[in-house]
Write a structure and sequence with these properties.
Length: about 350
């Protein structure tokens, strides 16, 4: 009986040790497993993205914007905001507006749409895409010329062509909190027509009536400098150089493209006899200036020499380019095109200009 009891106790002890060992082994394997479903896309960069206005080289190269399932695009011709399901590449929502829309900015973190409205009710409206309701509407005396949302600062900037100030809106408090003065030396308003982001918290405006570009430092909320390009009749679109020390600007009507240095005002490069150059952008990874010319062509230029490095004709996808933008840190160009009266929204790989997405907005 004693021997049997000892054997039973020994057997139980060994069984317990085996069970503990198995449990520890299994728990180690679970910890080392990769998640079954990734919520963020893999990236080749070693540093995570910090937003559209980041200043780090790593932040500006080889990174995609944060992944969201929805995206909103304005078709000005039909005055409709289209919600696109990025999982299916199909239109998921149609928001027809009565008041003419000038531009929109989408805040994916809040799922809000900032709408810049024209006459007869010029101003800014904040629309909650989740509930389908307006949260607030602000009437202002001047029609907005452009809006730009900074996801890092969480500020919305509003420029008006007939105003001498840049208005700053804070979504957290739902208030316009600041006006940044925009005047040339003789206190003449610069009349900004477009707004584009830049490095180190900077922003650039193209000032169509004055043939000038303006550099704004949003971290300290003041206008750094306005450069008048005397060779240009007007500057309709402008974009920062890679280092933020100069800008590229288009004189669309007169077919010219300029690079001008901030600080000195020196024209570093110019190219003429282009056919309706517009929507100038910079593809950061290769330091290439990208500009739409003619109806359907995209021209690529070396940013330093203005030497042509490539040209692509997008006529296969539409009859005219309506807009072109390369978002900060993106590896694609976002394009709106007219296709037989229907607006098409496309994303093209900027390396080979093959389409990544195509959605017809109707």
């Amino acid at each position: 009986m004693k021997i049997t009891g000892i054997r039973e106790r020994l057997f139980l002890s060994i069984s317990l040790l085996v069970a503990v060992a198995l449990a520890l082994s299994c728990s180690g394997k679970e910890e080392s497993k990769e998640p079954a479903n990734r919520t963020t896309p893999p990236t080749t960069a070693s540093k995570p993205a910090t937003g559209a206005f980041a200043d780090s080289t790593l932040d500006r190269l080889n990174q995609l914007p944060p992944k969201y399932d929805s995206y909103y695009v304005l078709d000005r011709r039909s005055n409709t905001i289209f919600g696109i399901d990025l999982n299916t590449n199909k239109v998921a929502a149609r928001l027809l507006r009565e008041t003419p829309l000038v531009a929109i900015q989408y805040d994916p973190a809040r799922n809000w749409i900032y709408e810049a409205t024209g006459k007869p009710q010029p101003g800014i409206a904040i629309f909650d895409a989740a509930t389908g309701r307006y949260l607030q509407k602000f009437v202002q005396p001047d029609v907005p010329a452009g809006v730009l949302y900074n996801p890092v600062q969480q500020r919305l900037y509003v420029a008006s062509e007939d105003s001498s100030v840049l208005r700053v809106f804070l979504p957290d408090s739902m208030k316009f909190t600041l006006n940044i003065g925009l005047n040339i030396q003789n206190m003449t308003p610069i009349n900004p027509t477009t707004l584009m982001p830049g490095p180190a918290g900077k922003m650039i405006t193209a000032n169509g009536k004055h043939g000038s570009v303006t550099e704004i430092f949003t971290e300290n909320n003041f206008m750094l400098q306005t450069i008048v390009i005397h060779q240009a009749f007007a500057i309709d679109y402008a974009y920062f150089s890679y280092d933020g020390n100069s800008s590229f600007g288009c004189d669309t009507e007169h077919g010219s493209l300029y690079r001008v240095e901030f600080g000195t005002g020196k024209v570093l490069g110019e190219k003429h006899e282009l056919k309706r150059p517009r929507f100038v952008q910079l593809e950061i990874a290769s330091n290439t200036v990208v500009v739409a010319v003619g109806k359907t062509e995209v021209l690529m230029l070396n940013a330093d020499t203005f030497r042509e490095t490539g040209k692509v004709d997008l006529a296969e996808y539409g009859e005219e380019i309506l807009s072109l933008e390369i978002p900060p840190k993106a590896n694609y160009a976002e394009v709106l095109m007219d296709y037989k009266g229907v607006t098409r929204w496309l994303r093209f790989d900027v390396q080979n200009w093959e389409p990544l997405r195509l959605v017809e907005l109707y």
